[in-house]
Write a structure and sequence with these properties.
single chain, about 290 residues, 9 helices, 11 strands, about 15% strand
Length: about 290
């Protein structure tokens, strides 16, 4: 039996990791601020000591982060949590005697991904990766970051980070007409269950380094909206509003880099993912109905 620690066990990705690991028969140590966690831990506070005996953890999955804007207050939160928080993660790992971490990164931490450049969130995540890599290297440990594409789920938790995806589901499920900006480039989405499986397999393979984690399917938001209407048998129409700023082109890295290292790749297509959502009882959780 393996023991896995999950920082951010209540996050969308963290919850799915918990579910899959327990289904395999592994033991999970939940780490975070929620009262039901096994280890109380805050990324913004220096870790002091363990209050109870914890079994030796083989791997820590780091899924927690702040996702604020680039205003002064938001930047401060992002860097305190995502960058300097990695120093506190290292203190925790030393206390646990764990020298293996798999990090949930973001494609936006690649310099060339967004033609507008990195925002504060992307930069703070990139700095957090480097700190963890540096610290684990000094301990003779292993660090891996899967820099994920846009993730979505079947419970609506993704709407906080993927508002346009949430809006598409909301309109399709309610049979309403949706006005979308023109798509200047494609988008790449991955179901969270595939993302969790990639993290688990990466940990088992002891992958080391940085890997782009994308789906092999690339679609425009217009195509996704039309697929959503089909999944929900919606009578609503998908219309392009040329008064809205177009969805810009993003420069996606080669997703095959990761799949060459693993025996699996993302399996759930967008059509399948939308059908899962359409047959679930969570449709009302998707939104917002409008985005400014």
């Amino acid at each position: 039996m393996s023991y896995f620690g999950i920082i951010g066990a209540s996050s969308m990705l963290g919850k799915e990791l918990v579910r899959q690991l327990l289904a395999r028969g592994d033991s999970v140590i939940k780490i975070g601020r929620d009262v039901d966690n096994d280890i109380s831990f805050d990324l913004t506070s220096e870790f002091q000591s363990l209050k109870s005996k914890i079994p030796k953890i083989d791997t820590i999955f780091h899924c927690a982060s702040a996702f604020e804007n680039d205003e002064s207050h938001g930047l401060k939160i992002n860097f305190q949590t995502n960058a300097f928080g990695s120093l506190n993660v290292l203190s925790l790992m030393k206390a646990l005697g764990c020298h293996h971490s798999c990090f949930a990164g973001t494609l936006s931490s690649y310099n060339t991904f967004d033609p507008r450049g990195m925002n504060g969130y992307a930069l703070s995540k990139a700095q957090g990766e480097k700190i963890l890599e540096w610290g684990l290297s000094n301990l003779g440990g292993i660090f891996c970051s899967l820099r994920f594409t846009q993730l979505y789920d079947s419970e609506g938790l993704c709407c906080n980070h993927q508002p346009w995806f949430g809006r598409i589901i909301a309109y399709a499920s309610r049979g309403k007409n949706i006005n979308l900006p023109e798509s200047k480039g494609v988008r790449n989405y991955m179901h969270v269950s595939d993302a969790a499986l990639l993290m688990i397999n990466s940990a088992e393979k002891k992958l080391e380094g940085y890997f782009p984690a994308c789906h092999t399917e690339y679609l425009t938001h217009t195509e996704i909206a039309l697929m959503a209407n089909k999944a929900f048998n919606s009578k609503g129409q998908v219309m392009i509003d040329d008064k809205k700023a177009p969805f810009r082109t993003l420069n996606y890295p080669d997703e095959k880099i990761l799949f060459k290292e693993l025996s699996n790749k993302a399996k759930i297509t967008m059509e399948e993912g939308l059908n899962i959502i359409a047959t679930s009882s969570n449709v009302e959780r998707y939104g917002p109905m409008d985005i400014q």
